[in-house]
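Researcher: For the annotation table, I need structure tokens for S-methyl-5-thioribose kinase. Please keep the output clean. Sequence:
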Amino acid sequence: MTAYKTFSEKDVIKYVQKLGYFKKSNNLDCAEMGDGNLNLVFRVSDTNNVSLIVKQALPYARCVGESWPLTLDRARIEAEVLLEHAKISTEHTVNVLHYDPELATIVMEDLKAFEIMRAELVAGKGFPHVGKQLGSHLAKTLFYTSDFYLSAKDKKAQVARFINPDLCQITEDLFFTDPYRENERNNIFPTSEKLSLELRTDDNLLAEVAELKAKFLNNTQALLHGDIHSGSLFVDNTTMKVIDAEFGFYGPMGFDVGSPIGNYLLNYCGSAAKWDGVQKEGHLNMLKDITRDTWNVFAKEITQLMEGHTQDLALQNPTYQARFLRSVFLDTIGYAGCELIRRTIGLAHVSDLESIDDTNARAVAEANAIALGKTLINKRHSFVSIEDVLLEAEAIIGG
Ligand code: SR1
Ligand code: MG
């Protein structure tokens, strides 16, 4: 057993050599390159440019500091969720090579030929293949970890294995609680002050958000990634890979489907406010396509899996399966709405809005994100298909 210590770049070099990934004689370079909210991320490479990633959990949240202690167990959760999802969707899950619960480290493949989707979307690039691939990845990872497929006993053991109270509490607070009340963690751009105050007195909205939070707290439908947004997707021109599963736990399927959709729509709000003409039209159309594809492919494939591969005799009932899919749809739209709001006025912002230099354009983008978030949460029960979401986006934002 090796006691935990926070790694320096030199420690990482010794560590990967000890694990046998590189020859002792090889000259290695190591650089810390983490830009996320929580962890250290190191890239180690040799002179032939062969490289690996070593991710280490800190005993606190990196973006806040030591005043926000955080469990190291999140490294275990991350590694084990990625390994479980990789068994089901190998092509679209980053390859975990090794993990160490004591040092809270994960060694994984370096996706250096890929880019983080969020940064690319902000720069105006398009990834039309991502919607279909992510929809399929979600259908498989969620179905095969649910009661439809696992025995009730095995599923309960998995629920216990993936209990993740610290990281769930971050989501419970930042997603569902803070944005709807006064809280020092909120980060509100001055032009959004008035709109954020209005949220706090919208009784219907507060009741809907409470319902979505209660489902997040109680509904152990499937092994979620738990934080699947455009910043946790590595993309190239033909494929995509999911990283960063430390928020994983057994929760409602719609949370994993709604989070990326909320993030495509955040980019929609930002892009519509900062661009014009053909560039804007093309980008918004691409975002509408990937939103549509994510839901439609998810719905089609999970329906086929429920019809053909459900093991539980009672859950094989087609009427129940149709009702189940409808409830996942409503959750998906609700969680997408919550993501729009919390990324605009909560603690953890996104570059889709924050990188807009022009104050007026940013004000418009943020107002639209809040209005669309509210509409998705409040009106979702009247929606029939994903087209209704896109119609609302067009009505509020344009495009
Ligand atoms: C303190 S962590 C803030 C956010 O970063 C992560 O990526 C999650 O989205 C979390 O809500
Ligand atoms: Mg993350």
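Researcher: And a one-line annotation?
Model: The pocket of 5-S-methyl-5-thio-alpha-D-ribofuranose (ligand 1) is lined by residues 37-38, 61, 63, 170-171, 174, 227, 348 (CB under 6 Å).
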